Amino acid sequence: MRRFATLIFAALAQTLTLTQTLTLALALPLPLPLGAQEKPQGWTPEAMMQVKRLDTPRPSPDGRWVAFTVRTLAAGPDPREFRTQILLSPTTGTSSRRALTPAEASSLDPQWSPDGKRLAFRSRRDGTMQIHVLSLDGGETEAVTQGKEDVRAFAWSPDGRQFAYTTEDSKTAEKAGARWHEEEKSPMTRLQLIPLGGGPEGRRAPRLLTPESQNVTDFDWAPDGSAIAYAHTRSASANDWTTEDLSLVNLRSGQTRPLASSSAVEASPKFSRDGRTLAFTLSDAPPRGAYAHRVALLDLASGGLRTLPATPDSVPVLLGWAGDGKHLLVAEPFRVKGAIYAMDVAEGSLLRLDTEPWTVAVSLMVGSGSFVELDPTGRYVGMVVQTNAEPPAIAFSPLAPFAPRILSKPNEDLPAFPMPRTEVVRWKGAGGLEIEGLLTYPLNSEPGVKVPLLVWPHGGPTQSHALTYAANPIFYPVAALAAQGIATLRTNIRGSSGYGRDFRFANMRDWGGADYQDMMAGVDHVIALGIADPSRLGIAGWSFGGYMASWTITQTHRFKAASVGAGISDLVSFQGTTDVPGFLSYYFGGESWDIQERYQARSAIFHIKGVTTPTLIQHGDADLRVPPGQSYELYRAIKGQGVETRMQVLPRQGHALTGPLALQRAAEANLAWFSRWLKETPDQGPALKADTSGVRSKYQVRSQRPWTPRGGGLGAWQRPQRGDSMGAVPRPCARGAMPP
Fold first, then answer.
1. How far apart are CA 523 and CA 505, in angstroms?
2. Residues 6 or more apart from 35 whose CB is under 8 A from it?
3. Pairing of the two strands 422-428 and 405-408
4. DSSP 3-state assignment of 552?
5. Residue 168: what are its φ and ψ, rounded to 5°?
């Protein structure tokens, strides 16, 4: 069980579990399939899809095994989904890993029984995601739940006799002809209890534990099994993330009572080993979009509350209590790598656990999986580790002494293509603030020979680019770009996680201001190093990175080509159509109708006249976080000025691309676009001049209403296409921020 914040450490959200399909509208000419070309000599988007994603590396209670998930492409010449299997690796001896679940149906979230003899997991074997149990001694897998709705999360009881789990309410069928838009009435998630053993006639009857007024987001069992602490919001709307509180349900009486309820966000409850203390995360009050929280300790007998000192980045993920009962294990982003800390609960001091030379990327997003796991006894740690040149692998270590070692390498059969070199670079941004980024060189680059450069601002805006495997499948394929002779600069400008609370909050009321200057200073730094050719620059970004890309082409003619992915072009219309309308009010200091000039001053669409940069635009048509109208506005405004513009619409895709074919086609389109535009030297045009010194600058308003597609609207954009195999729109993240 894990409750994450809504932000994400960069490279991870771009590799979420992918299950949906793709068709293309307004599609770009794409490269031929590999079978119709010569055998590639380096990484391509298609080859990068072979990199397996590893997840949830959970050690057994005795430390002898680690169960983890491996995501691979489903078999077939035109794969339309990923399949996830659970594998088991021993921590001692020479035995090889073995698959515990078949590849025909995805299985997720392996969890050990308290005695370590059984493994429970979620699997979509009969149409919906349900709890299954497998004995390691052999025998058939047993289905525990058989509901009509997916099981979202679950946990063994301490005695191993029952499960607590969450499911979403059944959706009400829409009446023909019309429907009411009532986002506050989205289906709620409930906490339920089900016995492992069957009742009369072998049937199990689930028991509802929480009231109708609470949408459950996370939970944890008391060590004696008498109660469950759970986090909840007042509705399932993504915009209500600020209402998260903690309550306790007594399993004997069925009574619930509040534990922590304030104007802050209380989340991620974790019982201490003796059951007397509840650890949880406590946000700033009121919580804001950039987000910050600390670890808090609640004495369950007295009600006394103690807040521990802030961690370096002020966004700790609670992994659990160590076996000694004196430490909490927490993880959070740290610069271009993740950090794992043992936190002394008496003093609040931190001991960083050394994972060099590997990167242990830390995910902070609901539903994105996990890359660091503590076993049920709090004595062993499993990790997904990688480097720029080494693909994801499974590592394991006792917590004391902490000495991680590689346990399993499921990516050992990847093509033996050369890997590009990546190094950390630093420069001075606006006001002299130190900014960090990742510079990936083209293959076979020669000293003194200037190369094309693609700059990539990340999403969030509170994500960060991480030093992860360069060939991980992603919509801006770093390894494939390097194989085509294009360098990539991934910038962690102000507003990023991993550099401390003040750095993350430094772009408040200033999107497109000092953060834009940080990014451009990074471009100038790479040019000054003699690496980048100033006449062959490109820019690309997704979500907030897409906002930065669209904003940049209105501020300068320096870039020969741009790619805008799921970007915000009009902050005013975005606030009125996104599923998290409160998000911008935190960053801009008010609602768009009260400070419309401030919103317009930093919206690309209000500065679009005079843009000359050829622009590729990509968007999923089921995107609730950044609705597709943002891209239609940008597309028509640029095209209307005679500038070459192409728009790739990805049906059935939400804000994150969740289909392998969609991800591959988006990457291929970006590779083709930048290979085309950055291979020739353009004429230098004059720089556009716009004042970015403050949010109160006056700008001429050129547009009052967004363009919409003929006969369209949000309903048309979100409608499933007939024949698609997966009908569910990805669930929006809580806590208000945008995944990339």
1. 23
2. none
3. unpaired
4. helix
5. -90, 145
